[in-house]
Amino acid sequence: MAEQQDECQHADRLAAEIAGRLAKHGLEEPFADARRIVQAGMGLSRESIARGDLVRVTHHARRNLHDLTERRIRREPIAYLRGRCEFYGLDLVVTRDTLIPRPETELLVEAVLGTANAYAAPR
User: Fold this and answer.
1) How far apart are CA 112 and CA 82, in angstroms?
2) I need a surface site. Which of 22, 85, 104, 108 has the fewest CB within 10 A?
3) Cβ count within 10 A of residue 65
4) In which element (H, E) is residue 9 found?
5) DSSP letter string over 11-52?
C-alpha cells in the first residue's frame, strides 16, 4: 500500500469536514467541537482556523484528526481529547483518570472563597 502524500488545506475547511462528520452523528455543537479537534490535532490556534490559514496536513496529522474525531463521535469529552481543561484561570491536565471540572464548580469555588475571606477579614 502506497504511503499517502502530505497535502495543504485551509484550516477552516478541514474543520468544516470534521464538523460534517460530527453533525451526521448528532453531536450538539459540531462546529465548535471540530475547531477544538483541529486545534488539538494540528496544534493550531483558534485564529488560524478562523482565518482559514493554509496548513500542511501530514499523513500522521490526518490519522490523528481521524482518531480524535472518532473518539468525539463516541461522545468522549473534548477535554479528554485535548488532555487539558481551563478551570478558574488555571490550565489543568486531565486524563481519563481525572474528573473534568464543570463550569458550575467555579461558582462553588467563588462562594467558598467569599465565605473564607469573610471569616479571615479582621474585625
Assistant:
1) 29
2) 104
3) 21
4) strand 7-10
5) HHHHHHHHHHHHHHTT-S-HHHHHHHHHHHHH---HHHHHHT
* CA dihedral over 11, 74, 95, 108, signed as positive or negative: positive
Q: Which stretch of DSSP H or E encloses residue 56?
A: strand 54-57
Q: Which pTM was predicted?
A: 0.79
CA–CA separation, 73 and 39 (whole Å): 17
Segment 48-107, tens digit of pLDDT: 999 999 999 999 999 999 999 999 999 999 999 999 999 888 899 999 999 898 888 888
Q: Where in the chain is the domain with CATH 1.10.8?
A: 1-79
Cell of 53: 490559514
CB-neighbour burial class of residue 54 (10 A; exposed 0-12, middle 13-18, buried 19+): exposed
